[in-house]
């Protein structure tokens, strides 16, 4: 995801919950990558894959309780993100993007 895309995501969350700067991700402790991809509300052509541990080295990762989707989670950024924040987010996803196995199948 580009800096602009991540910023749009963070701004949308902040509009719904003023003062909360976060980006939405899909995560689940017991589901496979394929199952998580299939559960996503919006499925892009590619997905960035990492572990909760990698994210938690830089940020807090919490369930998104505003949705019924059990794989929706938030990376809490703390404040309005800048270039340094995006560099930290990208560092949590060190592996190349993977083709999304659910792409074109409609998601949930």
Relative strand content: 15-25%
Task: Give the number of DSSP strands.
Answer: 5
Derived from helix and strand composition plus strand pairing, the structural class reads: alpha+beta
Low-pLDDT stretches: none
Radius of gyration: 13 Å
Count of discrete alpha- or pi-helical segments spanning 4 or more residues: 4
* Largest sheet, strands/sense/barrel: 3 strands, antiparallel
Taken from the alpha-carbon principal axes, the silhouette is: globular
Q: Count the domains.
A: 1
End-to-end C-alpha gap: 21 Å
Percentage of helical residues?
25-40%
Characterise the protein shown here:
With 108 residues, the protein is an alpha+beta fold. It has one domain. It has four helices and five strands; from the N terminus they run αβαβαββαβ. The strands form two sheets. The protein has a three-stranded antiparallel beta sheet with strand order 1-4-3. The protein has a two-stranded antiparallel ribbon with strand order 2-5. Strand 3 and strand 4 form a beta hairpin. The longest helix has 14 residues.
